[in-house]
Amino acid sequence: MTIKAVFFDIDGTLVNDRKNVQKSTQKAIQSLKQQGVFVGVATGRGPAFVQPYLENLGLDFAVTYNGQYIFTRNQVLYDNQLTKPVIYKVVRYAIDKRREISLGTASGLVGSRIIGIGTSQVGQILSNVVPKKMAKTVERSFKHLIRRFKPQSLDSFRTMIREPIYQIVLVATENETANIQKRFPQLKVTRSSPYSADLISKGQSKIKGIERLGKIFGFDLSEVMAFGDSENDLEMLSGVGIGVAMGNATDVVKERAIYTTATNNNDGISKALAHYGLISLDSDKIFRSRDENFNKVKDFHHLMDGEILETPRTYDVVEAGHRSDFKVEEIVEFLYAASQKDKATFTQALLNLHAAIDKAAEKVQSKEHPETPLVGQVDALTDLLYLTYGSFVLMGVDPKPLFDTVHEANMGKIFPDGKAHFDPISHKILKPDDWEERFAPEPAIKREIDRQIQKSFKRQKTAGY
Question: For residue 237, what is the domain's CATH number?
Answer without folding.
Answer: 3.40.50.1000
